[in-house]
């Protein structure tokens, strides 16, 4: 099991019961990847399953959502293959705004 802090910013908190910060325990054997975290988020944290496409597209984070691992762009950390460590901070910030 891995314990991480997950932040949903830029309006994404709306699909997570308006909670921006979550302490998450992914109940899986090591190694736990960012893909495993996304699966956990989809299965356990998105209140209305109709909102999944707001966050996920083609089995990855939707374009227009900046993903940071400990304040570093996830592209530099291996994206979905990144192996989570206890205490990691994963931030998702939407740059998509309605108007």
From TrEMBL:
It is found in: Cytoplasm. There is a cross-link at residue 99 (Glycyl lysine isopeptide (Gly-Lys) (interchain with K-? in acceptor proteins)). Signal peptide: none annotated. GO terms for cellular component: cytosol. GO terms for molecular function: protein homodimerization activity; protein tag activity; sulfur carrier activity. Pfam families: Urm1. InterPro entries: Beta-grasp_dom_sf, Mopterin_synth/thiamin_S_b, Urm1. One of its GO terms (biological process) is cell budding. Keywords: Cytoplasm, Isopeptide bond, tRNA processing, Ubl conjugation pathway. The modification 1-thioglycine is found at residue 99. C-terminal thiocarboxylation occurs in 2 steps, it is first acyl-adenylated (-COAMP) via the hesA/moeB/thiF part of UBA4, then thiocarboxylated (-COSH) via the rhodanese domain of UBA4. Pathway: tRNA modification; 5-methoxycarbonylmethyl-2-thiouridine-tRNA biosynthesis. It comes from the Eukaryota. PANTHER family: RURM1 PROTEIN. Acts as a sulfur carrier required for 2-thiolation of mcm(5)S(2)U at tRNA wobble positions of cytosolic tRNA(Lys), tRNA(Glu) and tRNA(Gln). Serves as sulfur donor in tRNA 2-thiolation reaction by being thiocarboxylated (-COSH) at its C-terminus by the MOCS3 homolog UBA4. The sulfur is then transferred to tRNA to form 2-thiolation of mcm(5)S(2)U. Prior mcm(5) tRNA modification by the elongator complex is required for 2-thiolation. Also acts as a ubiquitin-like protein (UBL) that is covalently conjugated via an isopeptide bond to lysine residues of target proteins such as AHP1. Belongs to the URM1 family. This is Ubiquitin-related modifier 1. It comes from Naumovozyma dairenensis (strain ATCC 10597 / BCRC 20456 / CBS 421 / NBRC 0211 / NRRL Y-12639) (Saccharomyces dairenensis).
